[in-house]
Amino acid sequence: MTTMRPSQRHRPRRSPRGLRRRKNRKRLRFALFLVPAVIYLGLLGVYPLINLLLMSVSKVDAGNIVQGSWPFVGLGNAGQLIHLSDFQQSLPVTIVYVLVVVGVGMLGGLAAAVVLEQPGYLAGAVLALMVFTWAMPPVVLGSLWKFLLLPHGLVNSVLMGLGLDSQPIYWLVRRVLALLSVALVNSWAVVPFTALVYRAALLDVPPDVIDAARVDGATGWQQFLFIKLPLLLPVTLILTILTVVYGFRSFDFIYVMTYGGPGTATTTLPFLSYRLSFINYNFGLGSAVAILTILVVAGLAYAYVRITRRTEGS
User: Fold this and answer.
1) Are residues 47 and 99 both part of a single domain?
2) C-alpha closest to that of 204 among 131, 117, 116
3) How do residues 171-208 score in pLDDT, each as one tens digit?
4) Are 49 and 98 contained in the same domain?
5) Which of 86, 133, 170, 215 is deepest in the core (most CB within 10 A)?
6) Closest Cα partner for 56 from 298, 293, 236?
7) What is the domain count for the chain?
């Protein structure tokens, strides 16, 4: 015969209805905490997005934007956008810009992570400086590099002082140089982030595997090429998607350094949306470009979520 302890003997039994009420009260309490965030996202996220969708399928200009009664044109803005010369020029510019940002940002971050893999005072100081650079606003970095790349700026002064060039280079005036300059500056801002992530992944490589490879006579380059690099593949996929999103939606550097020029040499899709909307006052076409940009970013975000879940599941 089992005896009950006093604490069990005097504990009241809870009915299923009481348990349900208690769970409902907890859920209601949690829901109340979510109300401010839902209101914030609704006002600053959902409502502007709905208006953007309505404007993308309507004829909206400076004359009727305040009225709110916009003529519906359906896919007319998309059809007009396809035949727009600025849109046709901005597509290859965007692709080249994103490729440079992704390529230089990823390779530069990987190289920096390999160099800074071993902990030490120097590595810590460099990492702190990189974090400081990464945390600076793009407007500040863009303004700084704009002054450095002026015809009589620091970059040309150093090149001419070393005898590498006798005349100043107009980095932000020539079409190809302007695009590459802005893309490289954007890549320079990406390198600290990719370096920090790659360094964390390198430090997570099992030391037993490296020791076994070293015992088998593998050189440092072979260890990196055949052991570390394959282990970095999941991180590389995620970083690539994040960097593509970052480069694709980039606006600050272009606005500060070149304002989309010379001509349309540095006009990417996000800046084209700004130019059509707030310079030409064709808000319908500008909204259509913005929706296209959002769709591309949403597709990349979906791929990022799928890869992240697959990596966590494995």
Assistant:
1) no
2) 117
3) 999 999 999 999 999 999 999 999 999 999 999 988 89
4) no
5) 86
6) 293
7) 2
